[in-house]
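For reproducibility, we list the full input for the 4'-phosphopantetheine complex.
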Amino acid sequence: MERPVATRARRLLWRPDVSAVAVYPGSFDPITNGHVDIIRRSLQVFERVIVAVLSNANKDSSWFTPEERVAMIRETFRAEGDRVVADAFSGLLVDYAVEKGAKVIVRGLRAVADFEYEFQMTMMNRHLKPRVETVFMMTGESHFYTSSRLVKEVVSLGGNVAGLLPDNVVPRLIARAKQLRAGA
Ligand code: PNS
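The corresponding predicted structure, in tokenized form, follows.
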């Protein structure tokens, strides 16, 4: 029979395999206030958040290069110093997370519609690396309808996107829409 003192001692020694670093991956083409909301929420839980921009050479529908997207994220979070790191990655997300010493992947959830896609990705990532855990943050309700795809559509049709994106991103998006309209 186990002695209570030994059990207590073991409990004190045991530490979960926790990490203070989380990876928040995405396309971020461009970063929206919905993403900003998730990053700010993550900073309340994690010491450092690596915002990992997917650098996908085959995805030529992107408006911004990975470098431009990373630069916009860095500008947005300049005040947070090294607690928010923006970086581009290619290959498997779980490999990138392990390489960076992160055991947690953060994803944002808006509506039920996000669930199916997120569920599939989480299960695949868990299959690939069971020790990397995905956690979900619910966006603030004012961001439920915001997506990079929709803001690009709105701005390309001349609509107002102020308030949906960080202030530094709005003029860049408008300028890029103009360039694309002009066929540049
Ligand atoms: O913002 P998005 O476009 O919904 O983000 C999707 C992203 C970047 C998280 C996802 O495409 C991804 O993790 N790509 C890396 C490739 C990978 O690891 N695929 C297998 C896991 S589903």
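The beta strands are 21-26, 48-54, 84-89, 104-109, 133-138. Residues 25-27, 54, 92-93, 121, 124-125 surround 4'-phosphopantetheine (CB under 6 Å). Both points were considered when choosing residues for closer inspection.
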